[in-house]
Batch of 2 targets.
Target 1
Amino acid sequence: MGIWVVGAIALQILGATALQLASLGSSFAAGPGLPEGGNYAHIFASRLAANLTDLSVSGSTLLNINSQIAGIPGDADLITVTSGGNDLGYVGGLTKDSDGGHAADPSISEQTLVNRFNSALTQIHTQAPSAKIYLVEYLTILGPDVTPLSKDVPFNAERVEHHRGVAATLQRATAQAAEGKAWVERIPVAQASQRNGVGSAIPWINGNPGSTTNGAAWHPTAAGMNAVANMLYEKARQRPE
Ligand SMILES: *[C@@H]1O[C@H](CO)[C@@H](O)[C@H](O)[C@H]1NC(C)=O
């Protein structure tokens, strides 16, 4: 599988080469509302002294991610991907309910989302055959610390359950897509961020506008991006199974 990350880190210490890292995905990768260089891929790349090609685009889906895939350097060693939320209308739905509307159910099934993941992952693998792909889950938004009908979460408990259901579909489809592909490693961010959702003591995510002062509404905070970068760094230090 080409240079593995641990080997690449060792080579960098010897000054031989730079690890080539590419980042793909939606706003949860891009980091809207955060300072330039504040998303997880930039933080991770800087800790690895890697050369980052950040191709992430806010609002992108697994259907239009092919324009990002086309930009992956052929010699990429490691590619991070966070996608699929917009295919389900996840953040769009949270925004709609926050604005007093009523978000529709996702327009595609879980199986269709899995198919889209499989297609995108295969394309990425074709574009950069020696690269390891880290499939990075979305941070949990509505964890156990949510208070419905509060400033941060201005909709009721039933709607909280609706959005949790969308998040669960997204997580299951992500996990299923990672299975059986030796070149894909899922980073279990959803589970690891349960106690850092909206309303928690240390939120890694914003709720409704104005709930924190960094990052966009319903998107990761600086602390959230740091946390994801830490998870990636810990994974990169491990030897592959
Ligand atoms: C960084 O990546 C870009 C895009 O692939 C490439 O043109 C450049 O040579 C790389 N730089 C280093 C130091 O590896």
Note: The beta strands are 20-25, 51-54, 78-82, 132-136, 184-187.
Target 2
Amino acid sequence: MKYPLCDLKKANNRFAPQLREAATRVIDSGRYIGGAEVELLESDIRLLTSTATAIGVGNGLDALRLALRACILAGRLNEGDGVIVAANTYIASVLAISDAGLKPVLVDPDEETMCLNGEAVRRNLTPEVKVIMPVHLYGRVAWDNEMVQIARQHNLLVIEDVAQAIGAKSPADGLFDSHTAGGLGHIGALSFYPTKNVGALGDAGMVVTNLPDIARIVRALANYGSDHRYHNIYKGFNSRLDPMQAAMLRVKLAHEEELTAERFALAMAYRNTINNPAVKLPLMSSRVTDCVWHQYVIRCRERERLREFLSTRGVETDIHYPTAVHHQPCYSELSHLHLPISDKLAEEILSLPITPGCTSVREAAEIGRIINEFK
Ligand SMILES: *Cc1c(COP(=O)(O)O)cnc(C)c1O
């Protein structure tokens, strides 16, 4: 394979000496659960998102699950309440909603941004809806003034799925004092899965919030529901961000801006090279942080043929995601939904390589020129 989609060994190679040093530090510390590494990472993420509290958890799905369950335990939500989420998201967003006993209200995203927007929220608002879950899909911040207004006007909770968008910023005001994904709404859930923009060398996730009650409950829930030692106020879980991963993540998080700038440069290389009329490019914004380019997702009516063509030319691609959530067998109860934009996207989207350290700007331009040869 000449152009791999995402070669993690290659991507992490530039950090290898520092990662080894950090691993040695953890080995020698004798502290293998919690401790300074986790606390320092939490503090870095708190600063990055301008939020009051950050809580390390086991993975991104747990971050969402614990956030939603905490809202119920805090009396901010009741079981059965509706959560608006775009149907073209990764299924984890929706699994967390069902897991908490809430009702996913799947809606079509905006066709241009491929993300939820305020207008879609307004169109789908019913009295049962109590939560908006913007998923900053592909790294693009799903946030606008209308969403802020609706959330305020109807007293809705905003829980952001930030798994793909660490460091992304919105020009529109958040509900608190942050413009950064995760700090825009009431609670943000981050994932550090190895392929994410800031990826661990294993699983890790984090919850960020400005709500003290939610922070307290998430912290307890992630630790067997315990508020202090051997005293359990909730029927909780064990979901921890381990210090080895925290140490790995602190190395990489220090380079977050540089990695984001590299993703932007790769997106620009595609934008400036691809001119095949059969291919529709994703929206390109001039501000580096409007989209942190977790994926570069093009569209093509003949997607399967293009994908096959690229494969024969050594370009590895993927589809994020080939099946909208309401067509997944586990959500057969939602299969009646008519979501034409989500369906169309699932048929036309194609993700190109965009991992810093794995694909260079020169290679992105080469891939662009190969795409231009597609007839
Ligand atoms: C990766 C991802 C998750 C889940 O994160 P994990 O750490 O893999 O559990 C949730 N939502 C979205 C949009 C994701 O891309």
Note: The pocket of pyridoxal-5'-phosphate is lined by residues 59-61, 89-90, 92-93, 135, 161, 163-164, 191, 193, 203, 205 (CB under 6 Å).
